[in-house]
Amino acid sequence: MSIKHFLQFNDLTRDEIEYIFERAAWIKKQFKSYQQYWPLSDRTLVMIFEKASTRTRLSFEAGMQQLGGSAIYLNTRDSQLGRGEPVEDAAQVISRMSDIVMIRTFEQSIIERFAANSRVPVINGLTNEYHPCQILADIFTFIEHRGSIQGKTVAWIGDSNNVCNTWLQAAEVLDFNVHVSTPPEYEVEPERANLYGTDHFEEFADPMMAAKDADLVTTDVWTSMGFEAENEERRKDFADWQVDADMMRVAKNNALFMHCLPAHRGEEVAAEVIDGPHSVVWDEAENRLHVQKALMEYLLLGKV
Ligand code: CP
Ligand code: NVA
What we know:
The protein is an alpha/beta fold. It has helices at 14-32, 55-66, 87-96, 108-116, 132-146, 162-174, 207-211, 231-237, 245-250, 271-274, 281-301; strands at 44-49, 70-75, 100-104, 122-124, 153-157, 177-181, 201-203, 216-219, 256-259.
């Protein structure tokens, strides 16, 4: 069997994603009723972090243990990865000692070089360009609350970052629409997002117009990890791109609000929204655990 990686959202087909969602629902149910399920006993996950994380580390590490396997955490500070060992060499070695690898790093090219030299599946735990595990969890959460996402409208307000790019890819794979509003000069770069076309997204200068009649309104920090030097400038440029109660009022009545977290209340989102009745951010965060368990099961065992 050829190795399957999950480096960007469109590495999986619609059929595979639907299968993973089905498994995630089953795995979640088993977990909630304290049923032991250990399909990955004796399997080892290596997690490599070049950037900070709470949710991604916790959900992968706990998820692997709950499936009967074990997880090892490496970071750039105290491994040879931070001292210039070529990514290709690290991939050769790490993939001979483990069964699956998750990486959080900077450029997408780093994870691609790792995967090209890996004997085992590689999962993207966030790069500058994409965050595919996040959007798997987000769409799974949408489906739990509202049913199929096909044909629905997602409003993305703020920076056209890794999370935004991944929403755009997901819209192509699962056939829904994304209305994007970014400040001028922060617009979507379709090439960087690796999109096939522009059929599934529309850009709006006015964030209120993007949010209008949306089924889901979502945003993310104004400054992503690795771009901290731009923080002050971004605070000014993004000041009108806060998701607040007025913006939620123009969305559909039953619209959901999501944020991948960590959030900055009073910047990209008002406290009354993230802590209000439309918000499903805690379900969204929890679902990282369940969908990633289903993803690891699929990448290691195929359809069971
Ligand atoms: N959403 C997310 O990936 O969170 P962490 O940075 O805490 O992993
Ligand atoms: N866009 C954010 C997501 C954090 C989970 C970042 O890259 O920092």
